[in-house]
Specification:
The chain is 26% helix and 22% strand. The protein is globular and about 60 Å long. The chain is α+β, with helices and mostly antiparallel strands. The protein has three domains: 3-83, Uridine Diphospho-n-acetylenolpyruvylglucosamine Reductase, domain 2 (2-Layer Sandwich), CATH 3.30.43; 88-253, Uridine Diphospho-n-acetylenolpyruvylglucosamine Reductase, domain 3; 268-346, Uridine Diphospho-n-acetylenolpyruvylglucosamine Reductase, domain 1 (Alpha-Beta Complex), CATH 3.90.78.10. The structure holds flavin-adenine dinucleotide. Flavin-adenine dinucleotide (FAD) binds at residues 27, 62-69, 83, 141, 166-169, 171-173, 175-176, 178-180, 218, 224-225, 254, 256, 258-260, 344. InterPro entries: FAD-bd_PCMH (IPR016166), FAD-bd_PCMH-like_sf (IPR036318), FAD-bd_PCMH_sub1 (IPR016167), FAD-bd_PCMH_sub2 (IPR016169), MurB (IPR003170), MurB_C (IPR011601), MurB_C_sf (IPR036635).
Length: 352
């Protein structure tokens, strides 16, 4: 019996799919097949799938909502586990606590203007919730972030409104320390429960996660997020709902058939040196590199947000990459800037 056969038999022959097209599991709708594909509906199933794959020496890759990945046209070898489901638990309501909120100062991503990429501005929606009581909430990593936000609003718990309309799972949000306006996810993370490479389950405090802008230790460690414990607020839920609604409205021009921003925004230091009005990379693509409408095959730089490459229909990963590589080349040649990827690459790519 081959390793694949052994794994399928041990995991669940009814639920393991062969040669599953990953294009159907990514927001970009791009990606070749996974040799084996399994949907984990809770942390227990996620642990089991990963441990079994490792015991059969089958490479294993985790995806959540597939909203920040470019999957190669050749697909992904081994087992792909889609982490999609789980539970949430409100563990503690500290109604007398008035803890100070940790303030992480990050630059606004966009500044107000009527021109293209510069029109995104969320600063007027921002407010401080630090005077409201803490609430500790544990959420399985496969839970969809938007579902979690609405579910918590129903329980009068706030703090996720800044991440309104960001697709994907709570695990994906931790992996990349997502940002919403001036906020980063790590502000509200208290503990993370991880499955280590040797297969142990550990619970670590947020400070050990090495959270940075669009990054965490998970980018290097190969650990898998099972659960996250968030420090949220018994806040003003009507205000939070209305802010979440307004964010959704303003972000509705961000095209969904994409993988989000292709590149990280530039640093404040680079912005100052270059004399640009914003750190938004979309501004550079639109106003400096003049690449509006640039297209290869079915992929195109979105005219609605120039740091997004969209699938206009039938795009391949190689089309997306050709555009990405052209932007990198022109940015280097024109302004001497090395742009950094925000998206993650999964599968067989020749030079990545
Ligand atoms: C329209 C649109 C708007 C977006 N807006 C924003 C935004 O405003 N701010 C922002 O920061 N991002 C944004 N994104 C990017 C994306 O939604 C986030 O990065 C999201 O958190 C990714 O989660 P996911 O579950 O889809 O992860 P996936 O795309 O499935 O995976 C991304 C990476 O995380 C890893 N991963 C996923 N789950 C786990 C886990 N449980 N344990 C370990 N590793 C894991 C995967 O292996 C992969 O390397 C946007 C994307 C789109 C399409």
């Amino acid at each position: 019996m081959s390793n694949f056969d052994g794994l399928i038999k041990s995991l669940d022959p009814e639920r393991v799919k062969l040669d599953e097209p990953l294009s159907t599991h990514t927001t970009l709708k791009i990606g070749g097949p996974a040799d084996l594909f399994y949907e984990a509906h809770n942390s227990g199933e996620l642990i089991k799938a990963v441990r079994l794959a490792r015991s059969f020496e089958v490479p294993v890759t985790i995806i959540g909502g597939g909203s920040n990945i470019l999957v190669s046209d050749k697909g992904v070898r081994g087992l792909v586990v889609k982490n999609c489901g789980g539970e949430m638990e409100v563990r503690e309501k500290n109604i007398f606590g008035f803890k100070k909120h940790r303030n992480i100062a990050i630059d606004p991503r966009w500044v107000g203007s009527k021109m293209g990429t510069m029109r995104y501005d969320f600063s007027d929606l921002d407010y401080d919730e630090s005077e409201y009581p803490d609430v500790e909430v544990a959420i399985d990593s496969g839970v969809n972030l938007q579902v979690a936000m609405f579910h918590l609003f129903d329980q009068e718990i706030t703090g996720l409104q800044w991440y309104s309309r960001i697709p994907g799972t709570v695990g994906g949000a931790v992996f990349n320390n997502i940002h919403g306006g001036r906020h980063v996810f790590s502000e509200i993370v208290k503990y993370v429960v991880l499955l280590t490479k040797p297969g142990d389950v550990i619970k670590i405090p947020a400070k050990s996660m090495r959270f940075e802008y669009d990054s965490s230790r998970l980018h290097q460690s190969g650990e898998i997020v099972l659960e996250v414990v968030l420090s949220l607020r018994k806040g003003d839920v009507e205000k939070a709902r209305s802010v979440a609604g307004e964010w959704r409205k303003r972000k509705s021009s961000q095209p969904f058939y994409s993988a989000g921003c292709v590149f990280k925004n530039i640093s404040e230091k680079d912005r100052e040196i270059l004399g640009y009005p914003t750190t938004a990379t979309g501004y550079i693509v639109e106003h400096i590199l003049n690449m509006t409408g640039y297209k290869v095959g079915g992929a195109m730089i979105s005219p609605d947000h120039h740091n997004f490459i969209v699938n206009t229909g039938g795009a391949k990963a190689r089309d997306y990459l050709a555009i990405r590589d052209e932007i990198v080349k022109r940015a280097k040649e024109t302004i001497g800037l090395a742009l950094e990827d925000e998206i993650r690459y999964l599968g067989e790519f020749e030079d990545r």
